[in-house]
Amino acid sequence: MTSGPAGAGRVVTLTANPSLDRTLSLPGVLARGGVVRLAPSSTEPGGKGVNVARAVAAAGGDVVTVLPAAADDPIVGALHRLGLPLATVPVPTPVRTNYTLAEPDGTTTKLNEPGAPLDEATRGALADLLHRHAEGARWVALSGSLPPGAPPDWYAELVRSLRDTGARIAVDTSEAPLLALLAAGPDAAPDLLKPNAEELAQLTGVPEEALATDRDAVLTAVGTLHERGVAEVLLTLGADGALLSRADGGVWSAAPPRVAVRSTVGAGDCSLAGLLLADLAGAAPADRLRSAVAYGSASAALPGSAVPTPAQVAALPVEVSAVRSPAGTASPPSSPRTTPVPAAGRDVR
């Protein structure tokens, strides 16, 4: 499995709404109103950008994660113990705690706190810090929800402000910030967008039920994102794999390997990290998608929001097929092994 060697290029992540991720392992199906005796549980530093950075760092990649947190906040200590380079803007409110109820069959229930509010001065300081670290980087990943006080179009503002750094920009968010990003115009469109099926439906108005059953509906919906300026789309679909589409017309599909799912928390973040790592290594689109799906699957096989090692990723075979060739190249040959465009499934946030 392709990964990005150290020195191949820097990844910078922004987590505007970081968290301590507390995973509570249930002995069985949750019985409301009862007393539950938990199996051993864990707490890990989290937030989508932090998860991406942890996965990149575990593969030996050059990464810096930017976040708002006081110097004595527990998340800062946890990230230092992991040896993860970070840059922080101090805030007076402790980083939130998110709770995951994990059942033995892999079912997870998320209970997310709202996060520390960010005023205009703090957002400005974060934007400046992000810009400084993005200069000379290969990728900047803007990931996760926005905290109270942040305007929905803040990611759009950040994309515009980062253009002069030369870094490529990936965005993975949802709901109002995602809608505002795509409504802001082509100059705010990221180089890479990572929606799931639910988010693609929100962005395009195509019913999620249609995306679950109709290959052409998926391709048409993704195509509208390219029309709005997005260069690449990584559509993650949980147990149904993923799709990588490029504005040049190239589309690739991947089916995930079989794994015993323990927790889907952070799987989508690891998928993004896998794609970025493969890009750092100079991989072709099909191999970038293969790496994304392998990383997401390896993450789902781990407890809590743990991130996989390159060895765990390399052990998972992922079949990738060309759905459509880039414009100006020959069409892929027909084959009974061609993987259809995946549908249904969900990348759990």
Q: Key features?
A:
10-stranded mixed beta sheet, disordered N terminus, 11 helices, 4-stranded mixed beta sheet, Hexose kinase, alpha/beta, 349 residues, globular
Description:
- GO terms for molecular function: ATP binding; phosphofructokinase activity.
- Pfam families: PfkB.
- Its EC number is 2.7.1.-.
- This protein is of the alpha/beta class and 349 residues long.
- It has one domain: UDP-N-acetylmuramoyl-L-alanine:D-glutamate ligase (3-Layer(aba) Sandwich).
- The chain has eleven helices and 14 strands.
- The chain has a ten-stranded mixed sheet with strand order 5-4-1-8-9-10-11-12-13-14, sandwiched between helices.
- Strand 11 and strand 12 form a beta hairpin.
- Helix 1 crosses helix 9 and helix 9 packs antiparallel against helix 10.
- It is globular and about 55 Å long.
Q: How would you summarize this macromolecular structure in one to three sentences?
A:
The protein has 349 residues and is α/β, with parallel strands linked by helices. It has helices at 48-58, 74-81, 120-134, 154-162, 175-183, 197-204, 208-213, 215-227, 267-280, 285-300, 310-314, and strands at 10-14, 19-25, 42-46, 62-68, 86-89, 96-102, 108-112, 139-143, 168-172, 192-193, 232-236, 242-246, 251-255, 319-324.
Specify the number of helices: 11
Give the helices and strands as they follow along the chain: EEEHEHEEEHEHEHEHHHEEEHHHE
Question: What is the CATH architecture assignment?
Answer: 3-Layer(aba) Sandwich
Rg calculated over all Cα atoms = 19 Å
Helical percentage: 25-40%
Strand order of the largest sheet: 5-4-1-8-9-10-11-12-13-14
- What is the typical, i.e. mean, pLDDT? 89
Quaternary organization:
single chain
**Beta-strand content bin:** 15-25%
Span between termini: 25 Å
Shape: globular
User: CATH topology, anyone?
Assistant: UDP-N-acetylmuramoyl-L-alanine:D-glutamate ligase
User: What is the CATH top level name?
Assistant: Alpha Beta
Secondary-structure class = alpha/beta
Q: How many beta strands in the DSSP annotation?
A: 14
Low-confidence stretches: 1-7, 333-349
Biggest sheet details = 10 strands, mixed
The H-level CATH homologous superfamily, spelled out, is Ribokinase
Pfam families: PfkB (PF00294)
EC number: 2.7.1.-
GO molecular function, one term: phosphofructokinase activity
Family: Belongs to the carbohydrate kinase PfkB family.
